[in-house]
Amino acid sequence: MSFSTLGLNPLILKAIGDLGYSLPTPIQAEAIPLALKGKSVIAAAQTGSGKTATFVLPILDKLAGGETQRKKRARALILTPTRELAIQVHKRIQDYAKYLDLKSMVIYGGVELAPQKQQLIEGVDIVVATPGRLRDLYTQRAIHFDEIALLVLDEADRMLDMGFIEDITKIIDSLPEERQNLMFSATLSRQVRELAKEYIPNGIHLSVTKDSQGSPDIEQWITTVDKDKKSALLSQLIQDNDWSQALIFIETKHGAAKLVTQLEKRGIQADCIHSGRAQAIREQILADFKAGKIKYLISTGISARGIDIDNLPLVINYDLPFPADEYVHRIGRTGRAGAQGQAISLVSKDDFKNLCMIESRLGHLLERREITGFVPRKAVPDSILNYVPKAKRDENGKRIVADPSLKTGSKSSSKSKLKPNFKAKPKPSSIAPTSAKSRSNANSVCQSDVSQDKPAFNPWTDSKK
Ligand code: AMP
């Protein structure tokens, strides 16, 4: 199927032609025609699947040729969890709408209110916003919602994880009831499904399903190491491999700044972004990283979602995140648009619980490789595939075992539906394998009911099993 068969405005087709898009991605092929017909859609789709164009193109098509907005009003509202994602979505709108006479703007916190208020007074068609700042502006009557005809909730799961539920529901309750809704979420957690049920009861559910076409190709492996040796190990890996670029995730702001210093002491130039840095600096650093001016970027979770970096070859988890979905989003920064990627995690004993939860979520164990000179004094136990985080107890205080076959150190049981899927891959000479690796596939779309929480998760599909 080509873009021209989707029924989009020729000026939009011209713009996406300029960007070199030749064929719609599976989610675009499925969702755009539905959205053009005015249907509400709830889609399980990752960043990297082409989801932004999936909602932006129908919005542009619908708004093109309409009347210019009255002041303080917009016709389409796109909510995103982070400033970075809001900025990126807005940039895409500008690219896709370059031949159209439409005005868009981006609203987020951490910067002055006045310029955003002024832009609203001048009138816009599309607002991309983070929920907190948008609600502030609404409360101050700087924006009115009475003409919003289209609502997009982008990365809905992330917005809920970040605690935006109250802002989101208050905003939605203030919108006109007659409107089209498009909701995108990497995972369809119970909370996301409840939100969809409440606010988009007639939405058509789409989910990306397994297919060999267009699957992100990410080689994932871990290495175990003592916590106090992580920075030395990271430095050695960087020096041995001289990767062209890497995005290195770490849990805390303080840890990010400290790691920059530790790497610099060993002659490795790096920079860091986290929520403690000024917005303008964050944007500049991200732009420099995207432009290849920064080789090693250390980041807290703020870059885990949404951010699209062309040809990023490597993601390193300096520590393992919680919840497990965050791991999926972090590694999803690499292996995009058909490129090959690599995701390496440095795992100390402290990370063990998170490792088990991540492997349970993935449905397979991650390959372990040993790096000479860094074998940990505090060994990291064998993983437990079907990890149960907290023992439940019955009314007599007796531990309820979820599955009697699950014991510390056990690999997946032969009866388990979650079959490990390992394939070995050539590796740098200083790195010896202790286990094996696996890959995951994605990307066709099926129209369906919302998928339920599931034990095994394929990061690229979040498919209905
Ligand atoms: P997204 O999932 O929206 O973040 O998009 C991921 C990347 O895919 C971005 O760099 C888009 O510009 C690109 N992209 C989106 N749709 C297409 C398409 N149909 N063909 C080629 N690239 C695309």
Q: How would you describe what is shown here?
A:
- With 465 residues, this protein is an alpha/beta fold.
- It has two domains: 205 residues, Rossmann fold (3-Layer(aba) Sandwich), CATH 3.40.50.300; 209 residues, P-loop containing nucleotide triphosphate hydrolases (Rossmann fold, 3-Layer(aba) Sandwich).
- The chain contains 14 helices and 18 strands.
- The strands form three sheets. It has an eight-stranded mixed β-sheet, sandwiched between helices.
- Helix 2 runs parallel beside helix 3.
- The two termini are 26 Å apart.
- The C terminus is likely disordered.
- The chain binds adenosine monophosphate (AMP).
- Adenosine monophosphate (AMP) binds next to helix 3.
- Adenosine monophosphate binds next to helix 3.
